[in-house]
Task: inverse folding
């Protein structure tokens, strides 16, 4: 007789669709965001296929424009933003703080339904003909010129935003109110710190994007003059509003991944993090300064020269806490007991790719240099190094690290290492050539391009093919492990942390007895208590 | 088949040299730090690989000295990058007296340029080598962006305002011109060439067959056709302000504030005449919104400017505002407008 756990405690569709268990809700999210990931990936594949040749020979210009728009909308709003928070955060935060569930289990379920509803709007927009504004919805193109399903897609984003807000609210309240006895703030796992910082951005930033897309819909339908100069509006106002959310949204994607990497590096070095409080506070610093850098998207939009300088210096400053994290991870590996399992390979991949992504961000923060590379493939390469190289590497690393806990099964380590290698190689082959293309001057969102850019584009498409294989493999071996994988022990990695002290998979109530915490949750060696800096 | 694939763009303007200098500096610094991190991570992973299953790492919790070190050093390096980048940016917007001005209008999906001597071009722009060029750009519909990779310069052309882009070509040749702000179906077709020519070749090209009216002459014709001249007469009893000598001056408005008569002001006064009425006049002028295109607006402005030109000087007066005529530099609107 199998022991009762959250997976076998209740069968049938209703037991999943009406569940209030944070772990089951995490799995609902896992299934839905994986679907959106492969949908967004298919759009990306169409883009790379078209760009094999300089001429527009695979599809019409309008179709191409819809492909990159849908790729951006689906990947940003329906995969990257919810990925780590809604799946790993939902699953792990209550366990990591020693609680039985999040503070508001019903609201947690509601947030998934809201996410699905928003996703349906976006699917309807895609199936009924698509949107061609770019995921950035720049006005007055989106309000006055575009002849596609802008409002449906905008409503999808508007609705999904509420799912983010509710998730953020749930996390913040839970971390404040539901920590186990003895679990002080400075004993919390760094993953919880990063999720807390992310939640702050969720609840402070998301309302702004909701307002902004609503204004776009209002101008499109009611011809209110907000952004369109022909109606007396200001198109650059839209850019300020849009990036006020969408730049911090980049930190929504990367901060959780940084939290995951902090956990993995500690577990596979069997060593507590170097400079705990610096890593914890750097998350908050990124969340706060991240709200003050949006104007670097407007360096060539005609904003005042002095505003440009302020946003430039602030953009450099936000790089410092990121650099601090990278140095601390590196120092954590020093004199560790290092095991290069697949999760650690993803963490190494993250450190390498995030470093390149972050350092190329400096080129974009240097305002005089940004003038040249703005809106070219240099920017595309930069943010894919952050979002794919950073955020998705972190997400994949987290899935591999916690998969035994989530599923109760072990996956094939050999296949997992192969996939990690393919993803790393494929990723670099896809996006490194785009830095060169960008400095050469190839603009983004070009259906047709000059022939001298073809060789680098072929390299990029080849890389994308390798990358696609790398992403499909985990689908196969994770699924396989659910049915045929070896049963996982409570703590297969020999890691520290409350989640490794309960069975795999955990029981519905997580802890039969509320744990009492007497030291930092990641204590590998006797330690002094970490105090405030 | 793939014989021509460059890895670095042509360097054909004064600005390009400056931008590339910073680029190579940043490339060197960032490559150093990337390699440093990669080397350390790999070295530590090999040196401290797990040798026994129950082995744990050393009890090291942090070091304030190291944290300060790797906060402060990157900070100072970044401030050098910031200052260098800011200097280049400032130079881009520095006023360039004696610059050759060209009007550029972007529309879905083409670039139209008109030289002060009357030459018109579509999806091409001819400029002389060695002389500063100042583009005054407007958009007829959505946002476009004027980008010349070989010159390392770019500016968004936002509808409803004028955008200035300055550069000095340094090497003769034909270079790409791209629209870099997504603008609809044929965004990637909104491309063309910038042709930098030696000054004597450029003079010869200017004198070539393609010339039409100068913008000022075309503007003068419009001024009559649109019946502007019936109110803006040159006598003291006119119902509208005199335009002779007005461009570049500061006028007092009906609400007591002042405004500089520049491109943005003239444009606004044609499209939205009630916004800034000169003191002593009634708000009787109708709007010309929808009746004139951006190109015609630029011609009308050229005409108004020509009424203030110093006799005998071909160069136009320096713009009144120290930077570019952006909307953010415009004087505050009247309350309630």
Result:
């Amino acid at each position: 007789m199998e022991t009762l756990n959250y997976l076998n405690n209740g069968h049938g569709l209703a037991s999943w669709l009406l569940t209030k268990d944070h772990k089951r809700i995490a799995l609902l999210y896992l299934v839905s965001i994986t679907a959106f990931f492969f949908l967004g990936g298919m759009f990306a594949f169409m883009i790379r296929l078209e760009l094999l040749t300089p001429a527009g020979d695979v599809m019409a210009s309008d179709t191409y424009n819809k492909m990159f728009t849908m790729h951006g909308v689906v990947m940003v709003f329906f995969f990257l933003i919810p990925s780590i928070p809604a799946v790993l955060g939902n699953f792990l935060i209550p366990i990591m703080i020693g609680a039985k569930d999040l503070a508001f289990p019903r609201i947690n379920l509601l947030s998934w339904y809201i996410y699905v509803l928003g996703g349906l709007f976006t699917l309807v927009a895609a199936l009924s003909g698509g949107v061609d504004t770019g995921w950035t919805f720049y006005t007055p193109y989106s309000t006055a010129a575009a002849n596609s399903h802008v409002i449906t897609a905008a409503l999808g984003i508007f609705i999904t935003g509420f799912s983010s807000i509710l998730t953020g609210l749930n996390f913040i309240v839970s971390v404040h109110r539901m920590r186990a006895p003895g679990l002080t703030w400075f004993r919390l796992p760094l993953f919880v710190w990063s999720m807390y910082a992310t939640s702050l951005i969720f609840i402070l930033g998301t309302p702004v994007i909701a307002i902004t897309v609503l204004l776009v819909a209002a101008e499109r339908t009611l011809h209110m003059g907000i952004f369109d100069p022909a109606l007396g509006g200001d198109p650059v106002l839209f850019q300020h509003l849009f990036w006020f959310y969408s730049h911090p949204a980049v930190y929504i994607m990367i901060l959780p991944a940084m939290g995951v990497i902090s956990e993995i590096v500690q577990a596979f070095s069997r060593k507590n993090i170097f400079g705990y409080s610096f890593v914890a506070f750097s998350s908050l610093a990124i969340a706060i300064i991240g709200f003050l850098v949006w104007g670097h998207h407007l360096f060539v939009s005609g904003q005042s020269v002095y505003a440009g300088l302020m946003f430039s210096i602030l953009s450099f400053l936000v790089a410092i806490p990121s650099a601090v994290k990278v140095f601390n991870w590196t120092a954590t590996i020093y004199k560790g007991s290092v095991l290069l399992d697949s999760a650690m390979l993803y963490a190494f991949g993250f450190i390498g790719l995030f470093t390149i992504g972050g350092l190329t961000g400096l080129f974009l923060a240097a305002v005089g240099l940004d003038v040249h590379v703005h809106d070219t493939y240099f920017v595309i390469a930069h943010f894919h190094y952050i979002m794919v190289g950073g955020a998705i590497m972190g997400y994949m690393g987290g899935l591999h690290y916690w998969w035994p806990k989530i599923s109760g099964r072990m996956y094939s380590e050999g296949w997992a290492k192969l996939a990690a290698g393919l993803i790393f190689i494929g990723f670099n082959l896809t996006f490194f050539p785009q830095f060169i293309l960008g400095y050469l001057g190839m603009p983004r969102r070009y259906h047709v391009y000059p022939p001298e850019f073809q060789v680098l584009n072929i390299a990029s498409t080849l890389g994308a093919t390798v990358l696609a294989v790398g992403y499909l493999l985990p689908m196969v071996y994770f699924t396989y492990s659910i049915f045929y994988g070896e049963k996982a022990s409570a703590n297969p990695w020999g890691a520290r942390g409350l989640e490794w002290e309960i069975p795999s998979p955990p029981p519905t109530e997580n802890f039969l007895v509320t744990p009492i915490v007497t030291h930092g949750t990641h204590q590998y060696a006797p330690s002094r208590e970490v105090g405030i800096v | 088949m793939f014989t021509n694939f460059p890895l670095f763009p042509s360097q054909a303007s004064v600005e390009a040299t400056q931008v590339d200098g910073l680029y190579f500096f940043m490339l060197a610094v960032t490559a150093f730090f990337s390699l440093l991190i990669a080397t350390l991570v790999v070295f530590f992973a090999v040196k401290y690989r797990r040798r026994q299953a129950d082995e744990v790492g050393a009890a090291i919790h942090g070091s304030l000295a190291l944290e300060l070190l790797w906060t402060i050093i990157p900070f100072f390096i970044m401030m050098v990058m910031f200052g260098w980048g800011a200097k280049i940016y400032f130079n881009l917007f520095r006023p360039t007296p004696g610059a050759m001005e060209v009007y550029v209008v972007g529309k879905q999906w083409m670039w139209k340029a008109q030289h002060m001597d009357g030459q018109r071009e579509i999806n091409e722009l001819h400029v002389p080598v060695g002389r500063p060029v100042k583009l005054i750009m407007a958009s007829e519909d959505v946002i476009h962006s004027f980008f010349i990779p070989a010159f390392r310069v770019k500016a968004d052309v936002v509808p409803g305002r004028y955008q200035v882009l300055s550069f000095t070509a340094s090497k003769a040749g034909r270079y790409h011109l791209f629209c870099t702000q997504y603008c609809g179906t044929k965004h990637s077709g909104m491309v063309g060439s910038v042709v930098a020519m030696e000054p004597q070749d450029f003079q010869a090209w200017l004198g070539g067959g393609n010339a039409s009216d100068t913008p000022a002459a075309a503007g003068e014709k419009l001024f009559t056709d649109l019946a502007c001249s019936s109110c803006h007469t040159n006598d003291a009893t006119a119902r509208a302000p005199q335009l002779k000598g007005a461009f570049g001056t500061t006028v007092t408005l009906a609400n007591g504030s002042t405004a500089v008569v520049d491109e943005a002001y003239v444009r606004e006064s044609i499209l939205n005449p009630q916004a800034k009425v000169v003191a002593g006049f009634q708000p009787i002028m109708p709007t010309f919104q929808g009746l004139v295109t951006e190109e015609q607006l630029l011609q009308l402005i050229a005409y108004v400017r020509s009424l203030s030109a110093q006799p005998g000087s071909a160069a136009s007066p320096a713009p009144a505002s120290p930077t570019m005529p952006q909307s953010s530099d415009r004087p505050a609107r009247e309350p309630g407008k």
Remarks:
- Residues 215-329 of chain B form a domain with the Cytochrome Bc1 Complex; Chain D, domain 2 fold (CATH 1.10.760.10).
